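Hi D.,

Good news: the full-assembly prediction came through. Inputs first.
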Amino acid sequence: MINVFEVPEGRLSETISAWEAARDYLEEQPGYVSTELHRALAEDARFALVNVAIWRSVDDFMAASRAMAENDLFPEVEGLGVNPALYRVIEGAE
Amino acid sequence: MINVFEVPEGRLSETISAWEAARDYLEEQPGYVSTELHRALAEDARFALVNVAIWRSVDDFMAASRAMAENDLFPEVEGLGVNPALYRVIEGAE
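Then the structure:
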């Protein structure tokens, strides 16, 4: 799962705190594997935060994110744009 | 480095081929470590492709991407939106 965040000016730390609250819940859910929150080096990056999380299955992730939404566990951040979507790696090179 | 692609309808395979051409060049450059191209499972995902690459240093990446641009090594794809930016992982949980 990759979530690309469009963070309004001045809301970065608020968004990181909201992300931490959601992560604390999600990491306890069945099928959670790992997550890495990436912060843009440039202050003017279009997407200040990108989260890349790994889940055991689509169903595990869907169940966890549904429960998170139902329990309102991702604190509201005014003007925040979130773009969560499921992906699979189609090409990798080391 | 994370690159978030906004892929126009019908241009996915063309974009993947362009990405492969760039990857073939970049993976030979000093400081390249690894890359993973992620494809959205949903056909209507806003960002159909997200590339997550790891480089040894900012300078290594900047040199390689400058050379790629100067040599015009990323084939043009009409209407393609690219959003490359450098990130660092600020939070991770396993």
